[in-house]
């Protein structure tokens, strides 16, 4: 759709997002706003509240005002774009929407959030029904919550809040962390192939429930191999690598290797700047592998090579963060 939609959805339920409050959900529950996957619809499925919708739908407003829902971002960060998806809402979508954001430390209550200072990141804008309405955001600040306002009422299937994760790693001071984790600010910045699924899946939270929740490439016929590059959430020294092929039974790689780069001292486009972290090592299908790296070195980026192709459920790179230096 747009460039920002390639960034992770900071609000996604599977990434820890939650709809913590809404002023109304008479026809359809607020929790649907951040569910993973495309909205579904089955016509002529009526419940006690009317037609069943895979989205959030409020009553017909008979007084001045507008409806709203507050979402806690599962991964706080800089919002680069918002998608207000009105899929399947045709005669009952809101004609306008706006989005606000705030940054509140800790674990605020709904009352504390309502009293917080909110910043408008998407002004009141017209939206269309049964459409993924996309809005770019230019605000460079880090936010923890967003508030979707619909004017005056109606239904929204999904709210996607795409951006760059900016974690607070202070709680892990002096401890090892997963330097590659999406929720710690890691991001796949380059990839040879993403035919079946997104490479960012390999650094997503939790375990993959099936092979579509990992990274899987097309079958190679050229004699080469597939690869991806992860920008670590914070520079650090990787000491243990996890390469998980769970759920990949007949399409796992035969082998894998890891190499590192410290972009603070070397140019990323210099092939000689990359150093070996894990030599080419045999992998088994449907297996979580753990390797202690033989020669750990500080890095800002790690490249995973798989031979020749296939899929990986998760990549974890555990090590010691360098809290004094941001990623390149």
TrEMBL record:
<dbReference type="GO" id="GO:0006144">
    <property type="term" value="P:purine nucleobase metabolic process"/>
</dbReference>
<dbReference type="InterPro" id="IPR008979">
    <property type="entry name" value="Galactose-bd-like_sf"/>
</dbReference>
<comment type="similarity">
    <text>Belongs to the allantoicase family.</text>
</comment>
<feature type="domain" description="Allantoicase">
    <location>
        <begin position="185"/>
        <end position="321"/>
    </location>
</feature>
<dbReference type="GO" id="GO:0000256">
    <property type="term" value="P:allantoin catabolic process"/>
</dbReference>
<protein>
    <recommendedName>
        <fullName>Probable allantoicase</fullName>
        <ecNumber>3.5.3.4</ecNumber>
    </recommendedName>
</protein>
<dbReference type="InterPro" id="IPR015908">
    <property type="entry name" value="Allantoicase_dom"/>
</dbReference>
<dbReference type="GO" id="GO:0004037">
    <property type="term" value="F:allantoicase activity"/>
</dbReference>
<keyword id="KW-0378">Hydrolase</keyword>
<dbReference type="Pfam" id="PF03561">
    <property type="entry name" value="Allantoicase"/>
</dbReference>
<feature type="domain" description="Allantoicase">
    <location>
        <begin position="16"/>
        <end position="165"/>
    </location>
</feature>
<comment type="pathway">
    <text>Nitrogen metabolism; (S)-allantoin degradation; (S)-ureidoglycolate from allantoate (aminidohydrolase route): step 1/1.</text>
</comment>
<keyword id="KW-0659">Purine metabolism</keyword>
<dbReference type="InterPro" id="IPR005164">
    <property type="entry name" value="Allantoicase"/>
</dbReference>
């Amino acid at each position: 759709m747009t460039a920002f939609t390639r960034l992770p959805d900071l609000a996604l339920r599977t990434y820890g997002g939650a709809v913590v409050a809404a002023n109304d959900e008479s026809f359809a529950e607020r929790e649907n706003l951040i569910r993973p996957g495309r909205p579904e619809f089955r016509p002529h499925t009526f419940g006690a509240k009317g037609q069943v919708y895979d989205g959030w739908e409020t009553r017909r407003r008979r007084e001045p005002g507008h409806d709203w829902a507050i979402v806690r971002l599962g991964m706080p960060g800089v919002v680069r774009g918002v998608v207000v998806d009105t899929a399947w809402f045709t005669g009952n979508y809101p004609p306008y929407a706006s989005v606000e954001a705030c940054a509140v430390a800790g674990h605020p209550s709904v009352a504390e959030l309502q009293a917080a200072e909110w910043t408008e990141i998407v002004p009141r804008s017209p939206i269309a029904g049964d459409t993924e309405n996309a809005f770019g955001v230019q605000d460079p600040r880090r936010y923890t919550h967003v508030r979707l306002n619909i004017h005056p009422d109606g239904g929204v299937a999904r709210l996607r809040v795409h951006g760059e994760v900016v974690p607070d790693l202070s709680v892990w001071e002096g401890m090892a962390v997963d330097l590659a984790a999406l929720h710690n600010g890691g991001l796949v910045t380059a990839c040879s192939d993403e035919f079946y699924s997104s490479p960012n899946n390999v650094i997503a939270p939790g375990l993959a429930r099936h092979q579509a929740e990992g990274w899987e490439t097309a079958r190679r016929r050229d004699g080469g191999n597939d690869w991806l590059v992860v920008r670590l959430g914070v520079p650090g020294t990787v000491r243990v690598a996890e390469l998980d092929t769970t759920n990949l039974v007949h399409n796992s790689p035969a082998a894998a290797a890891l190499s590192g780069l410290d972009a603070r001292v070397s140019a990323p486009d210099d092939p000689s700047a990359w150093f070996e972290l894990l030599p080419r090592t045999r992998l088994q299908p449907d297996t979580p592998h753990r390797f202690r790296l033989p020669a750990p070195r500080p890095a800002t980026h790690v490249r995973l090579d798989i031979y020749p192709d296939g899929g990986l459920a998760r990549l974890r790179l555990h090590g010691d963060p360098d809290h004094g230096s941001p990623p390149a």
